[in-house]
Amino acid sequence: MAGNAAPSGEAPAGRLAGRWVPWLVIGLWLVLTVVMGPLSGKLSSVTTDSAADTLPASAESTKVAVLEDSLPGGDDNTFVFVYHRAGGMTDADRATVERHYDTLAKRYPPKAVTPVGEDDEGPPTNPSTDGKAMMFTLDVGKTYGEPEAIVGPLRDAAKDRPAGLELDVTGPAAVDGDMDAVFDGIDLQVLLTTIVVVTLLLIITYRSPVLWLIPLVAVGAAALTSMATVYLLVKGFGIVVNDQNSALLTILVFGVGTDYALLLIARYREALHHHENVRVAMVHALRGAAPAIVASAATVIAGLLCLLVADLNSTRGLGPIGAAGILCALVAMLTLFPAILVVLGRRIFWPAIPRFSTTAEEKPGLWDRLGATISRRRWVAALGSLGVLGVLAIGLTGNTGALREQDQFVSAPESVTGFTVLRQHFPELGGQPMTVFTRPEHQERVLDVVEGTPGVAMAMPGETSGGWADISVFPKDAPDTAAEYDTIKRVRTAVHAVSGAEAIVGGPSAENLDTEVTASRDEKLVIPLVLAVVLIVLALLLRAVVAPLVLMATVVVSFAAAYGGSVFVFDTVLGFQGVDYSVPLLAFLFLVALGVDYNIFLASRAREETVRLGTRQGMLKALSATGGVITSAGLVLAATFAVLVTLPLVMLIEVGFLVAFGVLLDALLVRSVLVPALTLLIGRRMWWPSRLSRPVEPPDGHRPLADDEEPAPQR
Asked: Which parts of the chain are coiled coil (predicted)?
């Protein structure tokens, strides 16, 4: 090429990076965006949080939920109205409750109101024995809408009441409605907040008025494409997407995509100092960065796809959803992003434009000084890092118990406080009702067995239809407690023993119990599989055995420390009542897959440099070259996950905080200090059994040189 001062051997690279290629890539992405844009907007229309879709596929409560949906009236939303006055109910209060009952019974026929604890001929409203409360239940058919749309109008309809008469609308449907309200608009909130956070960090990182926009445009295109792809996966393969997974998709694409952008820009800026032609520089940058980026993406995708073996539908669905997002981010950042950079040329870096110079020398910086310090104090660096991680891991002795559904809200809504009021005045109805389905001819026998089960306050028969009879069972203990779960287990054991009844037990608390048990079982299956898959990817990338084992060990130790430190914060600082059942597996997956990313970036560069410089100098050169960009990438990824901390749901706060803290811990301590220190201690054996692990014989035939002395080995 005319005016290209690069060596003549770069001509093939220049031809590969012909001037028309970037414009073609940009054009193809514009067409793809136009096609996929409308589909991305449809993702919210296929998200679901229904029990039948998100519960464990093989759980007993799932079978009950499916059966309820198939029977007439079985899918009704049950609300509980609890009226209470501290000084005792007055005649006017009781008249108000009766009036509200009549109004709602007319508004929501035909299966309007059923008294709790009374037979069909009893009064529709139920007074408490202490005379301070009254209640009734309301079964509203799905034809009137989902819980979120119904609970507000129900509360409004009961506003007209005497001063001092309090009302809490609670029950399973009210909890679902309040939970849905939390997720209402969450995708847009997460998207906008993430864009703002990433934008600010990119501006701070590059200190350029324009450069920050290019990664954002490319990642935005990746996010748009990923949402459309997930929508097509749902329509074509029936994958379950809930609101939680939809929010995580946005976080993953923006966080990982921006990381890839930072790594590629660092290599591109470096290449621009050595190649005058920007297209040639980009080809060399891609040659250097793409293997690590592809390996990183492959690691995360492989880890996510391990979720396909999970039994919990919501967990299993996250596998292909997240994998699609990472794949879209990978393709966008290796095609669209470099194409835009090449078209805009060097001026995109203004005011710090990298100048072409064959004599450009790098000045020693922070990471060179850190590397020199680690090299002099290897044992101190390694043991000190492990000591910090060990202290943080002590937090695992804190409250890691399962989080109750009622404790999921940062600020308890009316449906949650209502359960407390209900338990105060109606202690016999302490827990959420169970639903027992049995064959009609065995209903009486099953009812007798249930009533005689310890922990059951009362049981009453329901309707018979579709070859099934249902029984409502009220446990004595508070919802989602160990005592209530024990009662559910005893009821199941008792009804299963009735021959021919084919009885199954479900309900909200039973669903939570099954979900918790299944999540624990999934952890034992998925976690070893993720470790094995990630280890294989690392071994293939580094062409070694020792290095992947060391890197995996550091990531696992880092996860334990991040989890322990986070539990301490959750328990002591934030006052959470436990850890959501989904947090350990999700956090492990993200921290192992994403945490290995930074080790991949460092170790792949170290192996590349070791070929020229030897193990010691190769690691120090890699730390110097990647330290800044990996730290920036860690900050960006941590900040994107930290977006979840702003949401009003404890589960998302726990995932966001744990992953953000773990990413920072991994980027700032494990990758920056521990891994280099261990590599320097282990020496060339780090690359065993590859050729790089073999001692290098000096020309005079004397003893093999130590790592500090070795000349540059050859492939």
From this structure: none
Partnered with residue 459 across adjacent β-strands are 473
Q: What are phi and psi of 114, to 5 degrees?
A: -125, 125
CA 246/CA 183 separation, integer angstroms = 10
Q: Do residues 101 and 66 touch, judged by C-beta distance below 8 A? A: no
For 641-687, write each residue's pLDDT tens digit.
Answer: 888 888 888 888 999 899 999 989 988 898 889 988 998 888 888 88
Check: pTM over 0.90? Answer yes or no. Answer: no
Give the amino acid at 60: E
Which residue's structure tokens are 């039948």?
52
Q: Which residues contact 503 (CB under 8 A, 6 or more apart)?
A: 436, 437, 438, 439, 442, 446, 495, 496
Q: Which of 636, 512, 655 is nearest to 570 (CA)?
A: 655
Q: Is 138 helix (H, G, I), strand (E, B) or coil?
A: strand
Structure tokens at 233: 């996966």
Residue 251's contacts (CB-CB under 8 Å, 6 or more residues apart) are 190, 194, 640, 641, 643, 644
What would the DSSP string read from start to end of 479-490?
TTSHHHHHHHHH
Q: Which domains does the chain have, with CATH numbers?
A: 1-47+187-361 (1.20.1640.10), 60-183 (3.30.70.1150), 367-397+536-715 (1.20.1640), 433-506 (3.30.70.120)
Greatest Cα pair distance, the chain, in angstroms, is: 108
- Beta bridge partners, 472, equal 435, 460
Percent of the chain with pLDDT over 90: 22
Neighbouring-strand partners of residue 374: none
Residue 468 gets which letter from DSSP?
Answer: E
Q: What is d(CA 197, CA 190) in angstroms, rounded to the nearest whole number?
A: 10
Token couple for 48: 């679901």
Tell me the CA distances in angstroms from 105 to 120, 128, 157, 158, one per residue in order: 15, 21, 12, 13
Q: Count how many residues are written for the chain.
A: 715
Rounded distance between C-alpha atoms, residue 299 and residue 302, angstroms: 5
Annotate 91-112 with three-state secondary structure. Answer: HHHHHHHHHHHHHHHHHCCCCC
CB contact at 8 A, 491 and 459: no
Count Cα atoms within 13 angstroms, Cβ side, for 130.
16
